[in-house]
Amino acid sequence: MVNQPGLNLVSVLEKRAERHPDRIAIMTGKEKVTFRELLDRVKNTAGFIKNQGLNEGDCILVYIPMSIQLYEILLAIFYSGMTAVFTDAWTTRNRLSEITVFIRPKAFWGIPKSHLLRLLNREIRQIPFHWFPGSGTNIISQKPEIATPKPVSPALITLTSGSTGFPKAASRSHQFLLAQHSVLSETLNLSEGSVDMPTLPVFVLNNLASGITTLLPDMDFLKTENVNPTRILAQWNKQKVNSVTGSPVFFQKLTEHILKVQPAFPPPEMIFIGGAPVFPALAKKLKAAFPKTQITIVYGSTEAEPISELPLDDFIRFNETNSVSGLLAGRPVSQIELAILPISENPISCQSDSDLRNLKLGYGQTGEIVVRGSHVLTSYFNQPEEEVKNKIRTAESVWHRTGDAGFLDDHGRLFLTGRANSAIRWKNRMLFSFPAEIILSSFPEVKNSALIKKSDKLYLALALEGTKFTDDLKTEMETKLSAYLPEKPNFRIFSKLPTDPRHNSKIDYSKLLEMIKEDSE
């Protein structure tokens, strides 16, 4: 199915609407839409787009949070053979302006608040068409035939967090979206007709293609760290959710509430957690809050989702009986090939896959994780310089450099040790952040932490939870850290460490360096 020429992702939705037209496709606390109704709205909105004079391949910038209307619009764009450019809810005005200049979209589809930017932003005003979420929904349009673009034609462009510069524009073709659907379906193994609550937009597309009902969480996607557990559990009680997919910060809030309040709720059958590192302290809380739920840790990235998977029980057992070396991430999924290469700040060139495999490090040796597969993005949108830095093109394949450091053990299990570019060269050895963070995560006072080097000194930045950094606490931490660190670090205490805007979990090391400079000895 994936390699059929001209196959449009929406064609899978059409088949779902034929098989179970009255099944709920997406619902919120206020509204719902069946598969048949969704397809009708998609076709009608596609007709509206076509009537504006746009052509296949044109880019449409979409600035709408997760909602039923978002997926009507995205799927209508796919249906029309055009390219949707999706921006996150936290995208700033300046970043939106930069994206507009870079993409040169033919239309802008945004929430009412975003249209106020036209008053302040000349670039957005110059986009030919400006539409609101409801544009076209009340207009009876002639429903066009579904477009049959080339399999490699871009269907969806998403922008990475761009915390250290202009974001990478990940270009997902129709072929790629179908391949990703195939892999996610096997990894998640959700039952058709079940109810899933995903907090990440791409998982809704997989649900629609799988005939699974999506329940959108009642939360502010602009501030995922402020999720209200009471509202989420109320949705679970009302809709009997079978599965939930979310980031560590999402589940951190849920588990803390559940363990403290002990509310009555129907636990989901399955939980999938990913998007950021999962540390042992959170794993134990998850197990305590959801003792009968099958919980899976999924490791992946914007360019390759998923890469590996691991049952939570295996993760907990391993950490109880083994010394600190890295975060166990499980075995790579069957559809991906993974290699560990020596860490390099420069582009990597290999003539063939065989040449690349000859560079692979041995078991237990830490390097950068690189992957290839049908659901691994091979290019960025009009960013050849990013492709040089982040891709390895051989005669047979395109490999993606994840930027993550890790190693494989002799059982083929993947371990994560931190970001490759944050590795610290220290007195003839390499130090990574995750082993130190794993140790510190065992302290209930620590919200999060990071190991960092500044001016030839080792620093451990800590965000503490409602406690003072006493001498006794410092001594206990130093004792435990001596198992990994060659010498005592300099501690720096903050109310909050800077994190990525998407998941609020990954440390922003460039901002942290600036904070440590301001808090220097």
Set down the secondary structure blueprint:
Blueprint: H1 9-19, E1 24-27, E2 32-34, H2 35-51, E3 59-63, H3 68-79, E4 83-86, H4 93-103, E5 107-110, H5 112-115, H6 122-125, E6 129-131, E7 154-159, E8 169-173, H7 174-188, E9 195-198, H8 201-210, E10 213-215, H9 229-239, E11 243-246, H10 248-261, E12 270-274, H11 280-289, E13 294-301, E14 304-311, H12 312-321, E15 327-332, E16 336-341, H13 353-358, E17 367-373, H14 384-390, E18 391-393, E19 398-408, E20 414-419, E21 424-425, E22 430-431, H15 433-440, E23 446-454, E24 457-464, H16 471-481, E25 490-494, H17 509-518
Parallel strand pairs: 1-10, 3-4, 3-5, 4-7, 5-6, 9-10, 9-11, 11-12, 12-13, 24-25
Antiparallel strand pairs: 1-2, 7-8, 13-14, 14-15, 15-20, 16-17, 17-19, 18-19, 19-20, 21-22, 23-24
Helix pairs in contact: 1-2, 2-3, 7-8, 10-11, 11-12
Describe this structure in words.
- By secondary structure, the protein is an alpha/beta fold.
- Strand 3 (59-63), helix 3 and strand 4 form a beta-alpha-beta unit.
- The longest helix has 17 residues, at 35-51.
- The N and C termini lie far apart (61 Å).
- The mean pLDDT is 91.
- What is the arithmetic mean of pLDDT? 91
Helix content class: 25-40%
Q: What is the count of helical runs?
A: 17
Radius of gyration: 23 Å
- Please state roughly what percent of the residues sit in beta strands, choosing from under 5%, 5-15%, 15-25%, 25-35%, 35-45% or over 45%: 25-35%
Structural class: alpha/beta
- The strand count comes to 25
Q: Which consecutive residue ranges, at least 5 long each, have pLDDT under 50?
A: none
Q: Could you give the distance between the termini?
A: 61 Å
The backbone outline, from C-alpha atoms, is globular
The biggest beta sheet reads: 14 strands, mixed
